[in-house]
Amino acid sequence: MDKVFDSPAAAIHDVFDGATIMFGGFVSAGSPTNLILALYEKETKDLTGIANNIGLGDKLDVLCEKKQLRKMIASFAIRASAKRQSLFEQLYAKGEVELELVPQGTLAERIRAGGAGIPAFYTPTGVGTVVAEGKRVECFDGREYILERALTADFAFIRAHKADHHGNLIYRRASRNFNEIMATAARVTIAEVEEIVEPGELDPEAIVTPAVYVDRIVKAPAYDVRWFN
Amino acid sequence: MTSAGLTRELIALRVARELRDGMVVNLGIGLPTLVANFLPEDATIVLHAENGILGYGGIVTDEAEFDQDLINAGGQPVTLAPGASFFDSATSFAMIRGGHVDVTVLGGLQVSAQGDLANWAVAGRGGGAIGGAMDLAAGAKRVIVAMEHTTRDGEPRILEQCTYPLTAQRCVDLIVTNLAVIEVTGQGLALREVAPGVSADEVRAAPAARLIIEDVKVVDL
What's the pTM value of the predicted model, to 2 decimals? Predict the structure, then answer.
């Protein structure tokens, strides 16, 4: 069993037009930028992207250059400052890309549920707001909750610090964020990592993502990502 | 533009006075991040960042120390406090929704007389950025809103009903502005403190919501 691929391009070779892709990372932390740039080169179209943010210095925004995204499901889709618009904001303003805006905790839990075989769950987040529109509301112990559906995807692009050849992963600092849960929720999970080691070299006590969730690994150096660059 | 009363730093200082030893506190983006500069020195306050850190320290200002994997939820590089831990986003929001965060300090665009909060969408700006605000407002044990008393154009931010899209209903416990400290009570908004040099009548004139005014103190700085 060896899940290692030679390049980001090889690791994403079968990503198809119309696919749904989860992208891990939170602004600059743990962004799978090498895989995103390979997707940009591949020019795959009509994609549905699921990510915490787009256009906050992350390289996901480049997918808007060639209009590869049909829809984004995200919690941050505009810049905090209105001074300069992201490419995504420009396309959104022209009606050329769809957006489903989701509270961050609900987004994380929808992905966690998707990976855990839970089709839907009730949450207090969003009750009485636009997020609740069209959703079932139920009262438990005197408090209202809304029903949210799980999310799954064809592919998850994630970034970890180290992998072994089986696909066990460890992360660096605050880079777990959405990577860890997205790894569980896609049909094919592709991890770019700083370093690949032999099975047995990672401490089993320290493994964060067990190998069962990881299908492909590619070694790629961390891409320099800055807030608002 | 309202320039009277407390500066942004002094608003943050006043908010920090609400924090006690051992509290787990989440600071929202913008003005609330300044609260980290005024934490009580004789207490351990554990700062939670919803992107997956419990126990971050200060904001890093030296560009040479920038580590792109060590940021808070506002994307700012941070240091770690002793005893810090890392976790994924689902775990982070389980902490928030599960009632394990004692206080969240959020920025605000509008707060209603019932404590409804609007802080994520501005009219005329498409898309939006909900981020973690809806989860924090719904899940934290105590919600403090730190904001300017009025908009740049002098429009009130404290209203009988919010006109912007809501973040959460009936969630706000305390409002700290440049002019006043206002508590959301079962009877309505109660003016507790005014900024030095600001009278209760001036504060009463600014919001478009009724204020309960009795036993008002001057903010102690």
Answer: 0.96
